[in-house]
Design goal:
The complex is a heterodimer of chains A (284) and B (269). Chain A contains twelve helices and no strands. Chain A is mainly α and 284 residues long. Chain A has two domains: 40 residues; 232 residues, MetI-like fold. In chain A, α1 crosses α12 and α3 packs antiparallel against α9. Chain A is globular. Chain B is α/β, with parallel strands linked by helices and 269 residues long. Chain B has a domain of 67 residues. In chain B, the strands form two sheets. A six-stranded mixed sheet of chain B has the order 6-7-8-3-9-10, with helices on both faces. Chain B has a four-stranded antiparallel sheet with strand order 2-1-4-5. In chain B, α5 crosses α6 and α5 packs parallel to α8. Classes of the chains: A mainly alpha (284), B alpha/beta (269). At the A-B interface, α7 and α8 of A face α4, β6, α5 and α8 of B.
């Protein structure tokens, strides 16, 4: 009996460790493959130049148009999502604190929205765009991506706010704070690391999504200057270049993927540092 | 110090000045959570500038009674509260006074400390800022005064800008008391404030209560009988949502009139 228990213990420890490390290995492998395949095409021109004549046949240029387009769209959409997400998450956790059933219903709908494939958001954004008489543009892309990432923003922030002890909420009210003061002076501060995580996750999802911008932002070799101009994006740059029969162009697709990955890693890292700094003064 | 003066006169002629010596009066208070009758026909009066102890086994409704007094029951939709709670002659259950200003009449000390996620200094100044005080000097003065009042000043004066969570749990509880006092309440609601603390920190809190009762009315919930005996000027014994006995603690603990209290005193000791 004792030996079986020891064996069982060893087996499951091994199994869980194996699964954990193999997942990490696979992820590391993906990044490695992208780097190796894109290495030859990685040069300063890639990030400093827009496509020149004949770029898509292996000619001169880079994907600065897509880098800038992606950043514009992701930053714009994240800003909109913050304006939607922060009040919404605070509302769920402060104003609705008495109404558990309403809270859960709202969370259910937000989870459902989170789960909708981004191509559906793309199609919706496209319909909205036609309805408003807009063309494929930076603005349409920003709005569509904002819709896509808002539920992520709300739910991620909400998830952290909901773990804040009821006692802190009560302490704030007992000091005579109104609900709004409790929301912004106590809950937002206490949940600030979650807020940063929410921004990071939303931004990452926004900058990496191809389907939602496919019809709405369009594609262009120029860097957009106005909101009504079309904008290129990195995911679509990867998509278009990867479909090329020319090996050099396919290499550039991988180089673009490297750029996108680096952007996401950098943002993820800085968000972690910021959120750590802010969670120091929090209740454990 | 109006309160101190009031307490002296009330001690001189307790019976004659019955009304001014009572700060809280609860009449026919009933609380339901669905079908569950949590508080049953509570009628009580709480003397000013004394420590009133709410004693009873866990789950007897002591905390709920405390939460009724500063209307934190509002946070729980399932709780239906009826009756009257007069605080300084204002029936807070049936009043038009805004809730934050009712709550500022009472400081709350909960079972474990919940410092706000800001610095030590800003924890104490928080209530003042809510009240609209902007004068730096006044805020500094008040922060020092209340940190001294709870005996924390010497320990923290060199790190006022450190996060409140860097303090030990006993210090945090005293900080929470200072934070509550800074709002200038007349009542302190203390819900088993020493239950998460070590014996030394508990002792400090108990001694603090004895010191500050000159200026504040303290309502202390506890299930520690010995703490009740040490601190109580007035005792209320509850079981299962009902007040079984209330009155002078010496009388109550020496000659319990009911079987329930007798049994509790034996088990509690």
């Amino acid at each position: 009996m004792r030996r079986i228990k020891i064996l069982e213990e060893k087996f499951f420890v091994f199994l869980s460790a194996f699964m954990t490390y193999s997942l990490i290995t696979v992820l590391a492998f993906i990044i490695l493959v992208i780097f190796i395949k894109g290495f030859n095409a990685l040069n300063l021109d890639m990030i400093l130049k827009t496509p020149q004549g004949g770029y898509y046949y292996g000619g001169e240029g880079g994907v600065l148009n897509a880098i800038m387009g992606s950043l514009y769209i992701a930053v714009g959409a994240t800003l909109i999502a913050i304006f939607i997400g922060m009040p919404a998450a605070l509302y769920i956790n402060v104003q609705l604190v008495r109404y558990r059933r309403t809270q859960n219903t709202i969370r259910y709908f937000l989870d459902a929205l989170w789960g909708i494939p981004s191509i559906v958001y793309g199609a919706f954004g496209f319909t909205l765009m036609l309805f408003l008489g807009m063309n494929a543009s930076l603005l349409a892309g920003i709005i569509t991506v904002a819709l896509l990432i808002s539920p992520i923003m709300v739910r991620t922030f909400d998830e952290v706010l909901s773990t804040i002890p009821r006692g802190l909420h009560e302490a704030s009210l007992a000091l005579g704070s109104t609900r709004t003061e409790t929301a912004f002076r106590v809950m937002l501060r206490q949940g600030f690391s979650g807020f940063i995580t929410a921004i990071l996750l939303s931004f990452g999802r926004g900058i990496g999504d191809a389907a939602s911008v496919l019809f709405t932002a369009g594609y262009t070799d120029n860097i957009p200057i106005n909101l009504d101009e079309p904008a290129a994006t990195l995911p679509l740059a990867i998509f278009f270049q990867l479909g090329s029969p020319i090996p050099e162009v396919r290499e550039r697709a991988f180089a673009s993927a490297v750029i996108l990955t680096i952007i996401i890693l950098a943002i993820s890292l800085s968000a972690r540092i910021i959120s750590k700094r802010y969670s120091r003064s929090n209740l454990k | 110090m109006n309160n101190a003066a009031a307490s002296q006169t009330s001690e001189v002629s307790t019976k004659a000045a019955l009304h001014s010596s009572q700060i809280v009066k609860i009449q026919d208070l009933n609380v339901f959570a669905g079908d569950h009758h949590i508080l049953k026909n509570i009628n009580l009066e709480i003397p000013r500038n004394k420590i009133t102890v709410l004693l009873g086994p866990s789950g007897c409704g002591k905390t709920t009674l405390l939460k009724c007094m500063n209307k934190l029951t509002d946070l729980y939709r399932e709780l239906k509260v009826s009756g009257s709670i007069f605080i300084e002659k204002d029936d807070i259950l049936n009043t038009t006074t805004n809730i934050p200003s009712i709550r500022q009449k009472m400081g709350l000390l909960s079972q474990r400390p919940y410092p706000l996620p800001v610095s030590i200094y800003r924890n104490v100044s928080y209530g003042l800022k809510l009240k609209g005080v902007r004068d730096r000097k006044l805020i500094n003065f008040s922060v020092e005064k209340h940190l001294r009042e709870v005996g924390l000043w010497e320990e923290v004066k060199n790190r006022l800008n450190a996060p409140a969570t860097s303090l030990s749990i006993g210090q945090q509880q005293r900080l929470c008391l200072a934070r509550g006092l800074a709002v200038k309440p007349s009542i302190i609601l203390a819900d088993e404030p020493t239950s998460a603390l070590d014996p030394i920190s508990s002792k400090i809190i108990e001694n603090l209560f004895k010191d500050i009762k000159k200026h504040y009315t303290i309502i202390l919930v506890t299930h520690v009988l010995r703490q009740a005996i040490r601190l109580a000027d007035h005792a209320i014994f509850m079981i299962d949502g009902e007040i079984i006995e209330q009155g002078d603690p010496e009388e109550l603990f020496k000659n319990p009139q009911t079987e329930e209290l007798r049994a509790y005193l034996v088990d509690g000791n």
